[in-house]
Design goal:
By secondary structure, this protein is mainly α. Helix content is 78%, strand content 0%. The chain is built from four helices and no strands.
Length: 183
């Protein structure tokens, strides 16, 4: 008698659960999610700053917004990995908190650098009124609430993925025990 294979519960026999398929799926979902965020951010940029809906203005806003959000797209996997490796569960462990604060600040600074570089590379209007460091600081502080929420969302996704993996493992064990009882 062959053991029963429950699709989605037996990673050893389910090809849709292979490591490469999961990695590819994660990369595609990450790219789509950050692309949508980039498009929405560019639309907000056009509506808030230029007050014109022209295609040129949207293209410019996209050029300015894309580098910063690309930083977050590239940081997604390491942040999710960190949230699974060092979860922010109660009671909070100081090493985990320190690692997450460092990762959040590093990603936020990288975002601010990319955003500031894009604004200076593709200026909408000529002229600068601030020094580069002041402009970088203003972008970091101005974007901080959104960047903190982005980081918290990625940590939440990491926790959800870890929980789903635990549930899937428990279901596979339960299915295996049920199969043994039937035999």
């Amino acid at each position: 008698m062959q053991p029963v294979v429950v699709p989605g519960l037996d990673p050893a026999r389910d090809s849709s659960d292979s490591r490469t398929v999961r990695a590819r799926r994660f990369a595609i979902i990450t790219a789509i999610a950050w692309s949508v965020i980039t498009l929405v951010s560019a639309a907000e940029h056009v509506l808030y700053w230029q007050r014109t809906g022209g295609l040129f203005a949207f293209g410019h806003a996209l050029l300015v917004q894309a580098p910063g959000w690309t930083v977050w797209g590239l940081a997604t996997l390491p942040i999710v990995w960190l949230s699974r490796r060092l979860p922010l569960a109660w009671p909070i462990r100081l090493p985990a908190l320190a690692a997450h604060v460092a990762a959040c600040v590093t990603t936020a600074v990288a975002f601010a650098l990319a955003y500031t570089a894009a604004i200076n590379a593709f200026p909408y209007r000529p002229g600068k009124g601030e020094t580069l460091l002041r402009e970088l600081w203003n972008h970091l502080v101005g974007w901080a609430p959104f960047l903190l929420m982005a980081y918290a969302s990625l940590v939440g996704i990491g926790h959800a993925l870890a929980y789903a993996e635990r549930v899937r493992h428990e279901q596979a064990e339960k299915a295996g025990l049920e199969t043994q009882l039937v035999e």
